[in-house]
Every structure is written in C-alpha cells, then in structure tokens.
Here is the input.
Amino acid sequence: MSTIEHDTKTGSADTAAIEELHEIVDRQRAAFLADPFPSLDERRALLAALAGMVMSNRTQIEEAMSADFGVHPTLATDLIEVLGVAGRAAYVAEQLEGWMAPEPRYSDPTLYGTGRAFVQPQPKGVVGNISPWNFPFDLSVGPLTEMLAAGNRVVLKPSEHTPACSEVLRDMIRATFDRDRVDVAVGGLELAKAFTRVRWDHLLYTGSPEIGRQIAMTAAEQLVPVTLELGGKCPAILTDDSIDAESVKQVLGTKALKNGQMCISVDYCLVPRERMDDFARLAVEHVRENMPDFYSSENNTGIITNRHLERIQNLIEDAQERGCEVRPLEEGGEIDPDTRQLPMSIVLDPPDDLALMQEEIFGPILPVKAYDEIDEAIGHVNAGERPLALYVFSKDEQVADDVLRRTTSGGACVNAAAVHGALPSLPFGGIGESGSGRHHGIEGFREFSNLRGVFVRGEGDLIEAFAPPYGDTAQAVVGAAFEEAGG
Ligand code: NAD
Here is the structure.
C-alpha cells in the first residue's frame, strides 16, 4: 500500500520532492519492519552522531542562519541551535537506560499468581517532524533527539522560509545518518501538505495554531497521533514588589532574543496601574544604559521576511491610530531592507480589542497592560486562550505560587522568562490553543514511544475465571471480591 498520496496532478515544483518523500517513507517503513527495536547502544550511537553533527557543522549553521534572517547573532546560534541541541542529545543519552527499562506495575497475586505486569516503551515506527522558520535546527534536530532515543525512524520537513538552513540541514543529516534512519524532505507548500497526508506512526508539528488545526484534521482522517507545538500570547504578570531593573531586564531580554520571534517570548506584560510609569522609565533606562544602538546591531536578529516586517509595522501603526501611547525604546533610523531590523517599543495600556492584544506579536513590541488587583491580572489571563508559557515576577513566593495555581499554561517561570524552554529535563509543550503533547525530557521520550502494557503469565493464577463458560473458579473469584469489598 502506498504510504502517501501522490500529488502528481498538481504539476507543481514540488512534484519531485513529493515523489522523493514517498520513497523515503517507504524505505524507512521497510527498515523499521526489518529492525524494529534498536538496542540501547545503537540509540546512544545515534545520539552521539547527532551531537557531533551539529558541533562539526557549527560554521555552516551560523552562516545559514545569517543568510536566512538577514542578520543573526552568532552567539545566539551557538547557544541555541548548536550547543542547545548537542546538550539535549547528551542529556538524553545519559538518561536513556532508565527511560528504556521496562517499568514494573502491580498485579494482584491472588488473581494473577506469580504473573508479571510491566510497561514496555517501544518505538512507534516512522515519525514525521514539520518545523517552522524561527529556530530551524533547534526545532528540527532538537526533537529528533527524543525521537531517536525512542527508537524511531524520522523524516524532517523544515520551513520554506529558511532555504539556506534547510540545505545545511539536509546535507548534514544525509552525511551523518543512513537515509532509512533519518532523512529530510525539502520543498514548498505542496510538499508540506503532502507531508501531512502521510500515514505517520506519529507526527510532530510546530507552528501557528491556524495551520496546526488543519494538520490535526488531516492527521485525524488516518488516525495519525499528533503533537502540536503552537503559539499564542504569553503573558508576564509583574507584582508591585518586582517593578525593578532586574525584572525589566528579564522581560526585555526575551523580547530582544530573536527580535521577539520566539514562541515563548513575553508577548505582553501586566503591571500594577500605579507602577506603569516606573516600568516605562526602567525600560527606557535599561535600553539606553545596557543596549545602546541595539536594534541595528549584529546582536539583533532580522525579521524573517518583508511580509512579517509589514505585519509588525501595521500593529504599531494601528496602535498609534487608535490613540495609544507607543514609546520607542531606541531612536530608530531607517529600516534596512536587507536586515529587516526595527527598534523595540512599548505600548502603554492598550485596549483589549487592539490587534496587538488579539494576535501573537512575534516582533519587538511590548504592550504593558495596567491592573488594579492581582485577581484582575489573573482574570485577564484566564479570559484568553491558555498560553504556551506564563511568567510571574514577585518577591513573595506565596503570591507567585498563587498565580501558578490559579492559571494554566504549557510552561512557566518565576522571576525569569523563557528559561524553562532551555532545560532538556523539563517537558515542553502547550495546552489548548497553544498545543498538545510534549517533547524534551522523559515526557518527549514517552510521547514518541508506544507505551505497551505487558502481562507475562506465571503460576498459580485464576485467570480462567475471565473466560466462559463461567464455573466454580469465576464464582469463587467474584464471591471473594465482594466479600473483601464488604458487599
Ligand atoms: P512556518 O510558516 O515556517 O510554518 C511552520 C511549518 O508548517 C513549515 O514547515 C511550513 O512549511 C508548514 N506548513 C505551512 N502551511 C502548511 C499546510 N497548509 N500544511 C502543512 N504544513 C504547512 O512557521 P509559522 O507557522 O509562521 O511559525 C510561527 C508560529 O509557530 C508562531 O505561532 C509560534 O508561536 C509558533 N511556534 C511554536 C513553537 C512551540 O514550540 N510551541 C516553537 C516555535 C514557533
């Protein structure tokens, strides 16, 4: 049976790429059936190869990032796309023996005798990974660590917005892994759609909620299980005692990272009304003193395309037209069309129906919304979609705990922002509109594993009680159970 639908009718530039995808999946499926359960040593060797691959391709990765983004800080590439991925693979390799071990479960000796029950994590099979443009290696090769740790075969599908990174990704993967273990499918929208129609054993999608919804519907037609890593608006709640230079530095730091083009960036802040001016003053001071000439520097990332840049500029213009106070944190000159960098600005107390309070900003604009009581801030968060991440800044542990207990989000930080996403030990994912399922850590390993429940028969059991015709054994088991339950 063909594993993907042929799209030859489209006649698009993707026709060859779709044909190739079909071959890749068939090849991997055959390899999986021939060798369905790689050993611990084999998996560790794959993880070591993965880590070695990103480390030895560091320069190519850095150059590709700069080419696709117009400008991209090399140190950010090193930290996130190279060292972050290699560190994640090393952590997984270290933990893997314990994760792979069958996990014993209770079985009642009266009924099951010396029989044993356990959970056996086994590879799901052939897994697809559709990744977006904002972290081209971290979101393609990153989840590959847990996918390989779980023993799967994997096909990666990078974004069409990062052609240079996709080329490096494909070349280094093919130079490192057998194509029946890991491969890369590169193409445009038709390929992306065809990729979604493959009957994967599991599909990971990272991107916008809008496309995520379409992907979930297409996958559901063939009952393909999906992990959805989506976006949305991540709030930061600051309490009165934490309107200080350090909190402002943390918040602006995540906004400056990738010029705001990060799914767990602080999208907007909630600040006590009487401290709004203090927050704004601290923000201006922070940029003036610690980040002079930041926006047009090599430390700042370019907006990925002109279309994305226009969308961000429209959000600012819309706020200005509606009479909101938009305060640039840096005096901006012209936007260089090659680097697509623009200065960060804060928007003071915008109304909730403004576009920038409705859609994910994904750029260097920080709305700062006023609240009177903490309950109002919590209510504001809970009235919206459940976010991918939520941040609370408070010197009072009880207040921070209260905010964590009364809100729901995929991840969270206290007195920091986005750091939870850097830890390979913590599960990463969303809830509701921000996604479902997890990668990173043991939760990622389990997400990409089939958690098979196994019973191995021993001696002295009464399992014949379950099978008709029901006789004395069933009578005795039922009678004893009711007696024990007091019935
Ligand atoms: P994008 O445009 O690069 O699209 C993501 C992927 O979806 C690409 O590989 C693309 O080819 C594919 N795609 C697009 N249309 C498709 C279709 N109709 N069918 C199948 N595949 C299709 O990236 P984007 O969506 O602009 O990414 C930004 C969004 O991703 C933001 O909302 C951001 O918050 C979210 N995001 C989430 C995470 C996370 O871990 N939760 C991480 C990064 C980004």
In short: The domain at 235-427 is CATH 3.40.309.10 (Aldehyde Dehydrogenase; Chain A, domain 2). The chain has three domains: 11-230+439-449, 235-427, 457-485. The two ends are 54 Å apart (CA to CA).
